[in-house]
User: What shape does this take?
Amino acid sequence: MAIATVNPATGEIEKTFDPHSPAEVERRLTLAASAFATLKGTTFAQRGEWMRSAADLLEADVDPLAEIVTREMGRPIGGARAEVLKCAKGMRFYADHAEEFLADEPLDDPSKVGASRAVARYQPLGVILAVMPWNYPLWQVVRFAAPALMAGNTGVLKHASNVPQSALYLDTLFTRGGFPEGAFTSLLIGSAEVAAVIEDPRVRAVTLTGSEPAGRSVASTAAAQVKKSVLELGGSDPFIVMPSADLDAAVTTAVNARTVNNGQSCIAAKRFIIHEAVYDAFIAGFTDAMAGLRVGDPLDEQTQIGPIATASGRDELSELVDDARAKGADILTGGSASDGPGWFYPPTVIAGVTPAMRVHLEETFGPVATVYRVKDADEAIALANVNDFGLSSSVWTTDAAERERFENEIEAGAVFVNGMTVSYPELPFGGIKNSGFGRELAAAGIREFCNLKTVWEA
Assistant: This one.
């Protein structure tokens, strides 16, 4: 894939970029290793000062940077601005809390292990490679970079080839804030060159957010080198509505949960599992609201749904919907790619889904919702757990016993009750099953790329 900004609203190439040569990749890896030697010896206070400075720079660039995001991957401009500001918040969060999260953990009674003092100590690993996707071209990177740098690691970014301007902005952001040159750098390379970077002895670990096949490939390469990996992969999150739910709130949130970022979010609600007692009312409200969303130019402040980021992504979405239609599903709204320039796909609701349809188990990466009718909590839980993904989930009920069951029995990295899934800096984020392993954000995220060293003193 060419390294280029191709505006998904028009299909036109706006800018192209030459990939980095092997010599340039070598130079950047050398800088990253050198920067680690410096950064690991700095204090949390110094790193925090640099991180806050970088957050201030990011925030000051909110408008031009949001436009870059919109032009590169089609996110409506209001959401793009929100992504920029969320990044600044996440950076300040780790500037404020890194020292607390990585503080020594002393054993209460070291005499039990024959010591006068025994502690668990977190220390940085070194150069960490981040392989990142296009759908949140800033936030996906910052939620890795902020904790990694605050821990004393350095970062090397291989970003998606369709968001090169986002990658190049991040390439200089942290050094502009004061971090040593090479503390965070971007590599403009193709996916075929990732394995060689993982295998480089200066790279100590790798994190990937992306597709399941990409995750399997990266994890396999890292494992062969006995290097740690953290994977955040796809999702097909259930959104369960029970009879006791606030139905109006559930419908409103369901629309937002399915269409945030044009529906191109791993943690977007995708499968709507509705109790038969409220199914008809939910379907009526949900379908009307989805049909009423404004689709159009993502730079227009009034637009709610922009284009799918790539032509191939739009085609894959169409194939899933067409397969369901051919096998007897009911398309309640939408269901056909828009004519004209750009890679638009309308908000779509599919009912009558059966296991014979691809959409039953595969992830829909766009504003397409599947809706199911269930008779009780047992059936809802079984359906929620039926596929191989396990990223997050949303449950709507005011019944305490139901809430407890769903929280304990849904197979996912998170359960949100009476709300939509959101990634917060304060909470660990990640999945199970084919949605990946390891965690980002909160204390768990910063500790992923640290050596937990036992220190024992006689």
In short: Residues 237-424 form a domain with the Aldehyde Dehydrogenase; Chain A, domain 2 fold (CATH 3.40.309.10). The mean pLDDT is 98.
